[in-house]
User: Fold these one by one.
Assistant:
Number 1:
Amino acid sequence: MENQSTVVSFGVRLASQVRRLGNPVVVGLDPSLDLIPPAFLSGGGPSAAVERFCLAILDAVGDLVPVVKLQSAYFEVLGGDGVHAMAKVAASATARGLLVIIDAKRGDIGSTSAAYAEAYLGPRAFLPCDAMTVSPYLGWDSIEPFLSVALANHKGVFVLAQTSNPGARDLQFATVNGKPVYQLVAEHVARYDQAEEPSLGLVVGATFPGTAEALRSSGARSWFLVPGIGAQGGSLDTLVRFRRPDGLGALLSSSRALTFPDRFGGAAAWSEEAVRSSTRQLIDTVVAHRAA
Amino acid sequence: MENQSTVVSFGVRLASQVRRLGNPVVVGLDPSLDLIPPAFLSGGGPSAAVERFCLAILDAVGDLVPVVKLQSAYFEVLGGDGVHAMAKVAASATARGLLVIIDAKRGDIGSTSAAYAEAYLGPRAFLPCDAMTVSPYLGWDSIEPFLSVALANHKGVFVLAQTSNPGARDLQFATVNGKPVYQLVAEHVARYDQAEEPSLGLVVGATFPGTAEALRSSGARSWFLVPGIGAQGGSLDTLVRFRRPDGLGALLSSSRALTFPDRFGGAAAWSEEAVRSSTRQLIDTVVAHRAA
């Protein structure tokens, strides 16, 4: 596996992993200290608690889903110790055969983006990571280092096109010659990576099925990382609009509803079984929607 | 000083500090391992080298300028140890009486932005920091936590409006009802913080004097953090277009030309004296342009 991962592109590995597991669900790790069950909090300080909690989630769902997504903010808020914990969680996920997306939404001028790209996607990255999220506000030269470093190292990138929050409308619907920003982003990414199974994808929120449909009907083959189902209001009924004709291409990401089932999922108390059960339930629903 | 910083707004502290030092120059710390002189590299690993280099810069210029800006990417690339080093450098800068801007360009959906805001601007931030940079791609709800946490804690935010790189044109010139994205950002920030001396500012690149002039002539009082002079092609001759009528309001940020004078400034070799001399030279030029 080690060897294969150095020669097979992220896109091909992703497609193969989704086929193998039979579902495209991404479990998001947003280990907010405000939400982690008290049992995890004793001993070793907050970063140890965050690490223990994330490893328990990996124990619960590591054999069910193809991908996990680590939200950098909840590690970063704990400073250097939190970043060390994020690296350990990523290493554990990788060792279990999961693909790892770091949700960092980085983006800067070219020379600084190059440093960020090396940090997460380069051969000496500080943590094992298969793909990361990138914000395109600074334009094409600002995302170039991420795209090129990713392709050179068989990694992936998901560039923010249309995010799942209500504020997504504020700037992502702005236009250049009549074309909305999210479409310009999608076209740029598609031009950059014309592989049959692309490694460079887009973030397209579940709350914007119209955007997904517009992009797919204009021929986009990119993988979409799709946040926003459930709590944020995105509906699984629209899932078909996010997929490619081959049925692949849409990664459904869910975080709190899966990992905090006691708070957001109706479970009486937090347990690995409750996390596993909420994840299984989402997988079953997604698979049923695919069959439909 | 400790006490004052908890009760006086960032905007007021910034104006007072710029007046006291007599210049608005920001020394940017971009401690790329590829550029740091070999003398710093031995002993303690890369994060120790980065820390030593940054402390040497603070020794060289800490009494000359009002503000230093730490570019997160060059610390982050070293993982948790690098983030620990960033915190130590920020603490040392604060202890010397410098204001500290963390250039992190974060931005995410609201709940995640809240975690980022707590990380850098909250009462339990992992490092001392007076202000940070924020990217608005995800819209107003995505930057709200940064703005509100900053104001509640007497800190500041610089929201990317028009960046200094050529790619700034790609998305920041997109329009909504004829108004460019950078202007929407400026208007939103001005509406949010109507203090006479605002704490919420904008990033406006030196390479876009037309943007600065348009924003100033429409009455914007926000502080502009202005990167891009020198290497990126921004000219000090246009500086007056970035300032408010009272002569304040424009922070001029320079990184490599000041901190790597051997590579980007014509000095024969790196030394604290050469760093100090290149910084003095920029200050003198900026002051001369103010008088003109």
Number 2:
Amino acid sequence: MDQDVVIVGDWGTSRLRLWLRQGKSVIHRRDGPGVSALTDTPEKTFLDLVGDWREAGPTGALLCGMVGSRIGWVEAPYATCPAAPADVADKTIRIEAGGLSVTIVPGLSCTNPLGGPDVMRGEETQVFGALALDEALRTGRHLLVLPGTHNKWTVVEDGKIMGFVTAPVGETFALLKQHSTLAAGGGSQADGSAEGFARGLSRIAEHGAARLTHLMFETRSRQLLDGLSPADAMGYLSGLLVGADVAAARDWFGPMDAVTVIGAGALSDLYVQALARIDVGATVVDGDAAVLAGLSAISRSQQK
Amino acid sequence: MDQDVVIVGDWGTSRLRLWLRQGKSVIHRRDGPGVSALTDTPEKTFLDLVGDWREAGPTGALLCGMVGSRIGWVEAPYATCPAAPADVADKTIRIEAGGLSVTIVPGLSCTNPLGGPDVMRGEETQVFGALALDEALRTGRHLLVLPGTHNKWTVVEDGKIMGFVTAPVGETFALLKQHSTLAAGGGSQADGSAEGFARGLSRIAEHGAARLTHLMFETRSRQLLDGLSPADAMGYLSGLLVGADVAAARDWFGPMDAVTVIGAGALSDLYVQALARIDVGATVVDGDAAVLAGLSAISRSQQK
């Protein structure tokens, strides 16, 4: 059974990541368009992408992410928190495409730690993956974060997702960078510098997240008056936003020794730095590894 | 002398307001394009607009705002805080246009109450106007706010502008409303409702401004899960942003009984409501009245 060939994937808003697996090994990997960028139906897009993989005789496909939303392939209504992999597995939707059985993982809804409603699609699978990969996360209460366009700050307790808060930090930064007067002086083209980022983090650490709105304009005024470069200015703005995001999470989560950051590359590094700035450790789990481990965990729950 | 006919105006980024005055009376009022929307040179635009006013024999023109910036007519370097009308009058720039003497009011720069650099152009004149119109503001320490694209929270003490903090709340709200996923469901077209605004204010009052980033996504999730209407959602987002702005100001200013809100209409009303929500009173000064009174105060200082 463990040597079955299966197709697994994370089909998000902006990209599709597909893997052909045999047992625990990845045989092939292929990327495709996100559900918001399709030029064809989801079914045809999927079948075209996996066409030559069919020769390997996959027994089925398992997909998580926005593929299960109203703008995806078929709507899989949210499972609710608290949720373990089995709770999500119970609410998967099975469809048939070109003779292949395709299982769609639902997202999660919750009442978040601030008492508001919240939703995720795809991140629940990565969180389950992190739990599968790191035994220490499976007992007690822990905070994980998936940085991105919409950060998901996720609380797990004894192996279940208890709730999560979405923080649209990436989206806000991108809008301010691309469209606002804060990016004066060509800043909109500049990547944020590491030095600027560190300065922004320090400014928030000094004043507290409650003053974020009153610190943001310095992104512009320091360019006008202090000769801050566009790259330093964008780093500074990023540092303010990420610093305030991290401070807010500690504010409602309470004291914490370490946070698990799920993701990859530069963005995860920024969160590791921001956590270190407030004396919180971080463990980074690669996002691809988390998706694969999470889909396996959901699949195992289904087979029980 | 007091019966001189003069042209006065506030030439900002997005609009030009011009008045023809005789003594304390306004004879005519005329609007024109802001300095960022000019189709001709500033000089020609100005002379075309005031052409028929020349028959009244104006002795000169006095203009404040972005007209004195690098993107304006002529650059008038910033005066520095602390600043009374005389300090600004000392740094005006005089030019000649079509036989008319035109005086450009400089803006102000400061080290703001959070220790960062800050700038304003035009708002200093309105603040001086509010001081001229309200004797109670001329002694002691007071907080004034000019809500807009970039809010200016201004501290005055014994008749001088001591410093100010710019909060780009209007700009951030507009970007999120027009471009972000928070405005899902057609929210980008909807004006914010009063009920939604009150809910947003309450949410921030309940949790504190430090959690703003972690409350914003509810603008979307409450539409998805709770059936929040687009108009209520945009009101809610506005309430969160304005509530956090007001909370931040109280945080650094300290205890305050009342804030003077300079402006007009719906936006000023939102600030009055947000201040009331945290038990702070508000006095509203009309923006046009403040410009006129401020330009008179600067003009009187020049004549001394």
Number 3:
Amino acid sequence: MSQGTLQRVRFGMIGGGSGSAIGGVHRMALALDGRGELVAGALSSTPERARESAREIGLSAERSYDSWQELIAGESVREADDRVEAVSVVTPNHSHFEIARACLDVGFHVVLDKPMVCDSSEASRLAEAVASSGVSLTVTYNYSGYPLVREARHLVASGAIGAVRKVFVEYHQGWLANDLESSGHKQASWRTDPAQSGGAGALGDIGTHAEHLTRFVTGQAPSELCADVRTYVAGRRVDDDASVFLRYASGASGVLTCSQVCIGAENGLTLRVFGDAGSIAWQQESPEQLVFHDANGKRTVMTRGGDGLSRDAADATRTPPGHPEGFIEAFANIYRGAIERVRGIDSSLSRFAPTVEDGAVGVRFVEKCLSSNGSWVSLSD
Amino acid sequence: MSQGTLQRVRFGMIGGGSGSAIGGVHRMALALDGRGELVAGALSSTPERARESAREIGLSAERSYDSWQELIAGESVREADDRVEAVSVVTPNHSHFEIARACLDVGFHVVLDKPMVCDSSEASRLAEAVASSGVSLTVTYNYSGYPLVREARHLVASGAIGAVRKVFVEYHQGWLANDLESSGHKQASWRTDPAQSGGAGALGDIGTHAEHLTRFVTGQAPSELCADVRTYVAGRRVDDDASVFLRYASGASGVLTCSQVCIGAENGLTLRVFGDAGSIAWQQESPEQLVFHDANGKRTVMTRGGDGLSRDAADATRTPPGHPEGFIEAFANIYRGAIERVRGIDSSLSRFAPTVEDGAVGVRFVEKCLSSNGSWVSLSD
Amino acid sequence: MSQGTLQRVRFGMIGGGSGSAIGGVHRMALALDGRGELVAGALSSTPERARESAREIGLSAERSYDSWQELIAGESVREADDRVEAVSVVTPNHSHFEIARACLDVGFHVVLDKPMVCDSSEASRLAEAVASSGVSLTVTYNYSGYPLVREARHLVASGAIGAVRKVFVEYHQGWLANDLESSGHKQASWRTDPAQSGGAGALGDIGTHAEHLTRFVTGQAPSELCADVRTYVAGRRVDDDASVFLRYASGASGVLTCSQVCIGAENGLTLRVFGDAGSIAWQQESPEQLVFHDANGKRTVMTRGGDGLSRDAADATRTPPGHPEGFIEAFANIYRGAIERVRGIDSSLSRFAPTVEDGAVGVRFVEKCLSSNGSWVSLSD
Amino acid sequence: MSQGTLQRVRFGMIGGGSGSAIGGVHRMALALDGRGELVAGALSSTPERARESAREIGLSAERSYDSWQELIAGESVREADDRVEAVSVVTPNHSHFEIARACLDVGFHVVLDKPMVCDSSEASRLAEAVASSGVSLTVTYNYSGYPLVREARHLVASGAIGAVRKVFVEYHQGWLANDLESSGHKQASWRTDPAQSGGAGALGDIGTHAEHLTRFVTGQAPSELCADVRTYVAGRRVDDDASVFLRYASGASGVLTCSQVCIGAENGLTLRVFGDAGSIAWQQESPEQLVFHDANGKRTVMTRGGDGLSRDAADATRTPPGHPEGFIEAFANIYRGAIERVRGIDSSLSRFAPTVEDGAVGVRFVEKCLSSNGSWVSLSD
């Protein structure tokens, strides 16, 4: 390994200025391992706020741009060893497609929040753009970055629970149990505005995480679904609650629920997978434990960082067992995957980082749920 | 309270001999508080086993009968202050109706396991029999006997969580994940034999508990459901897994799942109810805690026996907080309710003990799930 | 097993009338399995209350006695197949010795609450009385009756955790964090009155449970201790908090803490035993799980009633896994042990039921803690 | 806040090269918030390894030094706006004093791991060096950086639990249950070598964390202690287990245990504080919850990031509730405190970052435990 000195991947960021919830998370995830660095930004669509945000985080004035178009233009003309190599797009959903495609067009790798885009048409076109660009796109389905989620995937793939029969996944929050958007709350406002959210509410914001997590762990996508989608808060223009039956070609079935009106729930993302020879259970709010039952029902509680875990889990691990890793570390594993993609490194981190295809499946899932109206619909149409 | 000495209610038992899982539970529940006593039995349909079982539990030979018909006949002719006042029926489901009706006909109160009977027709006729008998019938939906389930009901009824929006209830077991019935396992055999089970499998055995628990706590019954019912174990003749969407006239909705193929699950009965001003969560396997979130999401963990609980919960409580009560004590609360019914005592225990109407709702619920085939069906037809 | 009909052991009870906390527990524990029956009582030292209490629980007026002396006298003259065979003594501690010895003297087996007696002198004399009586004495160290405590003992005895190095045991309550005794609270009053409690407070009431539990599970008694004993509530005449270092001849060491001023603690009895090849952990408030770590730190969570458990645990089990057993069932296992002793049955239940020797060790432990004054004292003096 | 662009604090690091456990943690903690940057290093005492480690982490060859002396010399002669402002010292304990003092002497702020130094004499001299240097020294008692630890401190300080009566703190690990040091394991080797560890084993490595955490939360230091210190693994030259009674001038008392032979324990740091009007409990392995009991025993579970928490907790928080923060984030809060000290910012982060005085108390605590021999010793001598 005695090659040259590590060269950090140079990132730009579009969106993520003051008041953004997720911009700071992306920056922490990028910074954590010292393998990437943020060198440019168009942090807000309001130029003054963009500049102010840049100052706050120590970005040079020279590379703080007033719009995403200027960032692309300005960085494109810099020297190859100086300009951004990748761009993190953390704007509201409706602008994902246009920005991401523009980045790809000039050869910048893209890291993109979920839901990737607003509809399947955009998803298809974005996939084409990636294919023709020669660079990569990574979707931050960040929960798949938890080490014990990687272990869960490994256990299922290695046959430890046998053939999957039943999946229960849920993602419950309570923060939108009331009409928070009317108060001007920034996060609530754009997420419940169909024009910015991409059309869906809870389904796009958290249901798509549950969908991806399940698919990542089981290695299967459902072929049919039946969804009961609801809006509980009066006046809200998007769904805030959905329950979905899943059927798989393998004969497995499942239940996915997502809701933002579950008072008391914070980020209650829980996955249980039952096979014919065992089962696993994992909860995002206690991410350091994975419960495994063998065919006889014997219960083992695995902890992150322990000796017997798979290489996939170890690759995603930073601290010894009992020194908790959390959300930011999991997010950083997606970033490490994106960075290794940029650098052409083949590893579990780069292989597992969600792709444009993963993003497209998620978009399609949300569309089908919204069109189900309580009846069964095929996902392969 | 300085009246005469306590007179225990005299019970007979039909079924529940050696090898029975539930007979012993009924006897412990009956004995626990010293307010009832078992004085007669027809403990098995096999006469020799009935007699042997009677000896094992200390029942007098004189009042150990060779058949349930003989028990009814034999006890009916004893003196009024000596004969059984109530009969516990703990036979497989298919014989519940006939036995219960015969008991009612001679004026014996009845305690009956769930599912109460095999179909709605039997349920209607049994309800009529109760009405015309002048005595009571109690169905042992035992989970409603837990003190903190009573507290949960009280909280919902008193408005502590506001209007109910969302219900999640599940009852997951793993003991039938394999073809246990082929091995001759007694409990597995009759429960998976449609002729004895009443037609349903998991739905009748545990789904009906989930249905009752939810109804007991919320005070609402769904008006429509959509069920995805499955049999995972090859060759099995009844359902072993079901997922059910629920819709309520109030606008609330819910998801009920029950399964007997969830390896590692034991008696995983969990209820969560979310209202527009709070929520509650309770798990049968940790029955001593009830989690309450107020409208601001503040989390209080209530423990059984504590000072601030309702009278309803206190009525069902025997030991101080931290000295765990469990399944048998909850079951005994149903028996105390039945006994107080026999004695004509009005109390939360007697009021809350499930009735023939509760049993009928449960039977109907199972029927509708089995006929849904993944589509919405009305429960009011 | 086709002998004659089960003959229940006939019990009398001394103490345990209205207002008693523990009398009802003893009666439920006795009744639960239908192998014993309460036929006589001197339920209170106040004759009228004794009679009233007897009526409330359905005891015949004829066998409700006005004093314990009358009970012994009255029962002694009944026919052998009618009179009590055993007596449960549930009076405050200061009267244990006199009553128990009187029962033994007339050949009644004794079931006695802890702390067994008030000092080591009484303990020695009681041990002699048992030896010369030909009958048995059982001390209700009830926590040792939990099935998973029996499993823990089995695991240690079978070498599953190797040689014991370290023991942590605690019994924390909060109910005496304030001067409850001044309010006239019955339980608080006698337990904090040295004349009735036997001299100790928390140490006698709960510390002795922790001591026995540890000894039962590890099979070892400490040889030295160093105790820091305190009284936090002003005006209280007994200890309400104690911390004790333990040293064992084997080289093991431990820490025992007991306290009644830990606000929020209910009956927080927790035992952890670390060996050189594994460890176990158990909590009384979650008694249905036993955590086992093997030499590699692999964590298995054992649940009561499961397949892989020892015969000792199975003997103490009534319901399948996931149908919680609790405090009363554990207590009933001590009673089953006492009953099997009376009947001369050799079983794990009768072997494990605590003896007069166990009671004497507990009394000595308390004495030594009270005399330690923060210095090391030998337990073998 | 529209001043100039954020200027990151420039750090150097001494120690922390390949194979170091803690070097990477310090770097992640430093990088997480983008307020500091690592610009120089002497990452190993072996020059070739120092250079290789520098390349791996992207440190320029020019500022990778072959020894800590060269780092200090080389950086001191750089321009003021370019040279390191602070140095993280992450070497084994025995070299802390010399290195830290040398850094202070040239005006570099110091961040130092615990135990700060090897004895009280070094501690006094280091405190003097800080006083005369005009720069700051921060000791990474990292567990005090958890947001809910800050909340716990706030609750105690604000009187929410009344006057402290009883403290239970434990830090249990199992990784040294066997003679791991003989295998050449790097971390085990130096930590069990008295010449490098500073003399203590478990007490210095983890006991001192427990001591600081307790003092941080309660605001009190014990005045006397009595310690039972042990070495369980044959041949080991330092303590691997200790139990300590604590007495406070306020009348409070406590029990501190630390052990590295508790098989199955990972980083089991748990603190419980009982006052006369409430209590708190916190566990490092589940750092996102703080359990609070009020004077009536009502149990509230507080989660990090929630609305009702104190400013102190909020200052230390990055993600919303339910998106777990962990060990690295807590560590980063200590770094943020150190950075704000360097910048002269007064904030809860800078005020709470542990000082040389905190480090000195910890060193003294360890010394006194080691000299106690099971007897009471004063901490004020």
